[in-house]
Structures are given as C-alpha cells and as structure tokens.
Design goal:
The structure is a homodimer. The first copy, chain A, contains 18 helices and 21 strands. Chain A is α/β, with parallel strands linked by helices. The first copy, chain A, has two domains: 293 residues, Succinyl-CoA synthetase domains (Rossmann fold), CATH 3.40.50.261; 159 residues, Succinyl-CoA synthetase domains (Rossmann fold), CATH 3.40.50.261. The longest helix of chain A has 21 residues. Chain A is elongated, with a radius of gyration of 25 Å.
Chain lengths: 474, 474
C-alpha cells in the first residue's frame, strides 16, 4: 500500500462506517447503508446511537466504538451534528469523511459557523473531508458507491469504465448520477460530486484522476475554480494525454452574480477564463447535455485518433440522405471543420466499385442510390474507401434506423474503422423502435451515436482537437 | 364544396386509387393499400393488373376502369411506368396524383426524360402531381395517410393537431414521419413530403397551410426554394399570424455544391437568404432536431403569448438547482434574451411568503431551500409570483424528475400559467424513469419539455419572437 495517495482513503477504503444509517426506507441514510452493504466488498459499519442493528448488521452508537477498525466514514446527519461526528472520526483513526449533509455555508450564518468548525477539525487532526452538501463519490474498481439515492445491485449494474466525472452543485450532481451514471449513458471509472469542497477540491480530485491509470478522460461541471493556477497546472499536464471537458458557468454579469456565493473563482472576466482554459487544452462546453455527450464520446474512445491530413480537420460525411449531408456540412463548416474534396483515387474507387454509373461521387458521400443498386454492402465499402483517403481525418455517418439494420455490415465497418485509427461518429434518425439496436451496435464498434447533428459535430471536433494536442505533445 | 382549393383533392379526396397496390407484405405498395384500407373513410380502390383482389377488396387492372369514380391516386410503380399511369389517371378524371416512386430527375438522364413526360401530361391534362420521390402526405382531419411505411391504426394513433410539416428529401421525410409523426413527438394537422416537386411545390403547400384553419403553425425543411419572391410573399402574410420555422441548408460553398442538383434556389448567397427569411418573419434553424423541437413548442402553443415588458425579452428562471440557473442564464444571455432583476414587489412577496429568511430572492429564482422548508408548494407559489412581474415575459422551469413528482403542484402551476398568458418552457433532468410522467403533465399544461437547455432557450426565444411579430402586426 506504499503508493497510496491522499484520496485513496476515499476511493478505495479498507472499511467504511455509515454515520446516520437508518432502517427507515424513506431516508437517504437507509439508501446509503443498503447500497453499501449490497455492493462494497470490505467491512461496512452502520453508526446510529438509536439502533442495535440495521438490516441485520450490528449497529454502533458512535464511530469511537470502531476505533482502529475503520478507514473512511460516510456522514449523513443534520449539519449541527457533523462537527461532533468528525471529532469522533478523528479520535477513532478515520482518515477520510464523506459529508453528504446539506445545511452548511449555503444556508447562512449558522451554517457558516458549522462549516468553520469542520475546517478547524480537519486542519487540527489531519482528517480529510469530502463535501459537504453532495452525493459523494462512486468508484467502479474497486467498487464503492456513497450517494444517498438507492441503486439496487449497483456493483453489478455499473460496469467499470474509463470516464471520470466531477460535478459541483448538490442537485445537479444527484441528477447526473441518476440520469447518466446509474442509467448507463456511459460507463465511468469514478464519479465525484464535490459539493461545497470545504477541504478536498476540484484541483485535488482532478490531480487524482490525472494520475489514475483507470481514468482515461474526464468531464467536469464546476461552479467555481478555487485555485486557478493549480487547476491550470493540472490541465496543462493532461493536455494530449487525457481529454478534459469543462462546463463552467458565469459568463455574463447576471450569471456571475447568480454564482456569487462562490467568489474565489479562476479569474475576473470570462474572456480570461476562456483563454486560460483553451491554452491549457481544456475542451469547454456550455450546456449539460454537451458535457454528457462528450462524456459518451470519450468514454467510448479516450485515446487520440490518427490524423492523416496536415491540418487534421478534414471530415467526410457518408450518408443515406442527401439533405442530411447538406445540413451537416453547414454545421461542420460553421464549427470550423473542413469538408474537403476527396482524393482522386478515392473518387475513382467509389465510382468504379460503389456508385451507380450515372452518379458522380463527392463529399458528402451520398450512398442511397448505391445501396438501392447494391445493397447495404455499399455502405461498408464506401466507409472503407473514404477512411483510406489522406484528406479525411474523421467521418460522420448518417445511417437510417429501420428493420433493415439486420442487413447492415456492422462487423465490416468496425474492422475498417479500427484499422484506420480514425475518428468516427454516427447520427441516428428514422424508426425510433430500432434506435437501441443501432446504438448498441455502434457502441460495440466504439462509435458514439447522437440524435442531433450538432452533437455529432461537437464530438468529432473534440476527438480531432484532442488528437491535435497529442500530436503536438509527442 | 364550392370553397375547395386546388390541393383539396390531395388532402381531402372523396375516393382514392392505389396504383401499385400489392399483397406482398415486404413491399411499400402493400403498406400503402393496407394503411389506406384501414384508415381512410372514403372508397379505396387497389389497382394492379396482375391481381383480382387485394386484402379482400376488388382490384382493378387500370385506373381507366375506375372512370368517373375516383378523385385521387397514390402511385407507387417503377418510374418508367409512371407516365402511362398518369395518362390513365387523366383519362379517368382523376384530379390529383401522389407520386411516391423514386428514379426520376435524381437518377440521371433516363429519369429526367420520365420527369419531363410527367410534367407534359400535367400541363396538358390539368392533372395535379405531388412528388415524385417522396412519402406523400398525411392529413389528420379528414384522415388520409399515403406514406409507404406501415402505420397500423394510423387514424386512431395520429390524433388531430395544429402543426403543419413540410419536408423535401425523400429519405429525411420518411425518417421524420417515423420518428416524429407516427411516434407522437407532436400532433400534426398535415405532414407533407414534397419530394422532387415537379408540379406542387413548397410555395403552394405553404399557401394551403397558411389558409388552412386547422393548421396553426408550420415547420419546413427545404432543400431549394424554387420561387423566392412567391415564397417570401406567403411568409410575410404568415408573420404574426402563424409561426413558421424553416431549416434550409446550403450555407457554405461545400454544402451549396452538395445541393447543386437543386439550383433554382431563393438567392445566391446565404446572407441574402438569411436576411430575406428574417425580414419575412421566418424563424430559421440549423439542425433537424431544432426544427422538430420548435415543432413541439408550436404544436403545444401556436398562439402568440402575452408580452408584458416594453422590450418583450425578459426571462425569469425558476429552478431547483442553482448551478442549472447559472448555466441557463449564460445561454439565455448569449442568445440575446435578458434575465432582468425582478420588480421590488415580486422580491418582497418571494421573501415574505416563499423563501427562507436567510436567503434573498433574485433571478434566477433558486427555490430548493424554499422547497426544503415548505414543500413543493414553494415551486407553485414562486411561479405564480414571478408570472405577475411585468419585467418577465417568459419563464424557464428547472424541476427535478423523481418519484417526488406526485407532490408537484401541476394543476396550480397550469392555472397560473394559463391566466398569465405568458410563455413557459421546462427543462427535464434527474431520474429518467420519471421523464414520461413529467413530460405528460407539462404537455397537459401546454408547456414543452426538453432535456437540453439549448432547446429550452430556443423554444422560449421563438415563442417571444412570434409574440413580437403579433404585437407589431396588431
């Protein structure tokens, strides 16, 4: 255990006390202890002075009764009781406490006093604090799930993945946990709701993820960046190694004012923030869905793709709908990407082997007439041909979801995409009864799928941008 | 029937022949006749020289055998056979033919010859032609459904609505039909795939919808605008009366080239197109999902909302998540909308009746602490109070989807929203198992719901923009 770092006691504790555990199924304290007993491989100790046992497990009146036996504590008791619990934790040798309770600095003077008391205990005893006012953290390997939302069989349902998530804001993080992590929108390595961050902050968590071999990419929603220089230092080290996507609000006077309670931010004006993030190689987004959609992209493929053109921004569109190709080309161009003319050799092969004689191939590659003539192999053949074009750094696919998908050459396409090392993203439209089928197949090939073209463009642009960083770094 | 206009023979024919009807369940000609027999209230005649009956209905060898008995024909036979069928139609007194077959001008010289032959027949005989290369049309009252995709019990599933849809591009229109119309993403009055428009074009369809009392708003995807001045004339007449959303591709050289087969477009440069559309009061969008999301907004509420502020662009945010409020404020401001300080009287009421004493209300209105203190009534009370603020022209709601929705004061909110006459849009995040519940309740209140904040902003901005047009017109 010599290589354990400061946050290991949170992410991989050898034992956990749940302070505020209860048998009342309507309470968050029930969800926490139930989730932990069900999914955590190491010893779990319920702590509650009013009970002898909870869910058939012996319950302790205080953490002090567990002296020397417990490495981490999850604390979900009224804010006023938290300082006392932390003294108990420190006295019992606990190293890390996840504070999920609300009612701290965000609720006024009394909360601020409690907040200060907690900081003082941490400073004096060396006990590390996570939160408060948050759902805590999830690690998928080794497995720990601290949130106060019930997640039955979490350890079986949350398969280990490569994406790290960091979210400030209690409510949003809870929503994200339900909507994206538990539902399987992507698989994660670690999901962290950092809350009021009175001790552990976004920089430390990001540093931990930056050096965590299981985390290959990170998405973060931040309301404030407490230590700007330290944050930028970590992000610069990640550039070209691990993709980092950040949503940081407060771009306008009105919104900055709304985030006023968090004043110690990265820098005054958003232009400065934006410039600094950009320089540090951070992919900045402006909507939660953009953030989650890039999370999906980088969870499927966190490594840099191969760029074949000198500028690394050439995109080919392979589409069953001419109109979709036109609209997508508009969006690609307005995002700053190129839709280049294909190489002569590519056009020759498409004309000879794929397209009907009357139709001249170009980019976007409109393959419906070829499919009508030759079946769905025309889709696979077009993709293979276009992938070998040196002007093409990435491809966006526009297939049609329908029962015809059973004839779709997924395996062929997957092999070609994999061999090319190039970035591929897919749109999804058509018969929504077949969306799951299309998405699952594409996911198996490492290709993210979106229902709007904007998200396809954003994902591909981010893939290519990260590949650029990697190229510049090597 | 004296007030029947030219396109009534398509939208409300007294009888229909299906040319190319077949009993082979794998063919589009089967889907058409099956759908029509099931859902069309007037006589339907299968036409196919190789069969005596189809689905238990007498089948005719030629439309000529139906002389004087049939007003419209749906034609789904190989392109080469279409001119002959049209001669038969004209001879039999058919007034309107929906051509769904592909293989016309879009497939080269032979197709262009067939195309010219069809135009000639139309010009000579007065037979009106719809398409070709399209799925035709849907009217929900009286009911007719011509597409070649199977839609069981279409007449029972597609409830009459107020939205008109126009789409060029065969494949996209087919996808839209499946994904948005049949699936119930919104309810429509008429959905039109106009295809190659060799006769009936977007202007004529738009004119028809403009004067159709059942159609209250229109969304259109257009690859080309054949007669720019006529198109702008119709749109100017619609401004402030019926919202019109247009997606028109080809903004860049590469995309305009990709749309080259459709050359007779509105004007050379996209700047000119954009200026003209804007001046004519058209809401222009750039992604299919934006178009469909505004379709959802205007299908729920096509009438202009009441603007209370002089500028008509003041938005209040009522949110359970402070972070969501910050990010949304950024998006509102960058879209050109305002997030004004609330009136003194509004703040006083919120402070006195809704908020905890330690928390000062402002815009965004962060109501979670109030909900923790007073329950979900705090949500309803906040909305009511904010709706009566004269600086607020519209509200975006950020509720949390969870099992707690059963305590949510939907009815209260609905009443307040309705009485205010103001625009309201809702985000949806949280536990996705409760998304359908939230969406259904909001839909009942006429409030559109989106999973991304960008779409919330776009919908509200479009609502307010249309209200502006209406105010300027009156």
């Amino acid at each position: 255990m010599s290589e354990r770092t400061g946050l290991d006691a949170f992410f991989a504790p050898g034992s956990v006390a749940v302070v505020g555990a209860t048998a009342n199924e309507l309470k968050g304290g029930y969800n926490i202890i139930k989730n932990m007993l069900e999914s955590f491989a190491e010893p779990v100790y319920p702590v509650n002075p009013g009970r002898d046992e909870i869910l058939g497990v012996k319950c302790y009146p205080s953490v002090r009764d567990l002296e020397g036996k417990v490495e981490a504590a999850i604390v979900f008791v009224p804010a006023a009781n938290v300082p006392g619990v932390l003294e108990d934790c420190a006295a019992a040798g606990v190293k890390a406490a996840v504070l999920e309770s609300g009612g701290f600095a965000e609720v006024g003077e009394e909360g601020k006093r409690i907040d200060a008391a907690c900081r003082e205990i941490a400073a004096r005893t060396g006990l590390r604090l996570w939160g408060p006012n948050c759902t805590g953290l999830v690690n998928t390997d080794p497995f720990i799930f601290t949130p106060f939302m019930r997640a039955p069989d979490a350890h079986e349902r949350l398969k280990p993945g490569t994406l790290g998530i960091i979210a400030q804001s209690g409510m949003l993080a809870a929503g994200f946990m339900l909507q994206y992590v538990i539902s399987g929108y992507f698989t994660v390595s670690k999901a962290c709701a950092i809350g009021n961050k009175i001790d552990v902050n976004e920089v430390e968590v990001l540093e931990y993820m930056a050096s965590d071999p299981k985390t290959k990419a990170v998405v973060a929603y931040l309301e404030s960046i407490v230590d700007g220089p330290a944050f930028l230092e970590v992000t610069r080290n990640m550039a070209g190694r691990k993709p980092l996507v950040v949503l940081k609000g407060g771009r306008y006077e009105e919104s900055a004012k709304a985030a006023l309670s968090h004043t110690a931010s990265l820098a005054g004006s958003d232009d400065v923030v934006n410039g600094a993030l950009h320089q540090a190689g951070v992919i900045r987004v402006h909507d939660f869905q953009e953030m989650m959609n890039l999370g999906k992209a980088f969870s499927l493929h966190p490594e840099p793709f191969r760029l074949s053109s000198p500028t690394g921004d050439g995109v080919a569109v392979v589409t069953v709908t001419g109109g979709g190709g036109v609209v997508l080309t508009d969006l690609l161009r307005s995002s700053g990407l190129q839709v280049p003319a294909l190489e002569r050799k590519t056009l020759d092969i498409l004309q000879k082997d794929v397209f009907p004689a009357w139709m001249a191939p170009s980019n976007p590659v409109d393959i419906w007439p070829a499919i009508e003539q030759r079946g769905f192999n025309a889709f696979g053949d077009s993709i293979k041909t276009v992938l070998s074009d040196d002007r093409v750094d990435g491809i966006i696919l526009l297939p049609f979801a329908s029962r015809m998908l059973e004839y779709f050459p997924f395996e062929d396409i997957g092999e070609a995409v994999h061999e090319s090392g190039k970035a591929v993203v897919s749109w999804m439209f058509g018969d929504s009864r077949y969306f799951d089928t299309l998405e699952e197949h594409m996911r198996d090939l490492g290709i993210p799928v979106y229902q709007d073209l904007h998200s396809c463009v954003l994902a591909l642009k981010s893939y290519l941008g990260f590949a650029h960083q990697a190229r510049n770094k090597s």
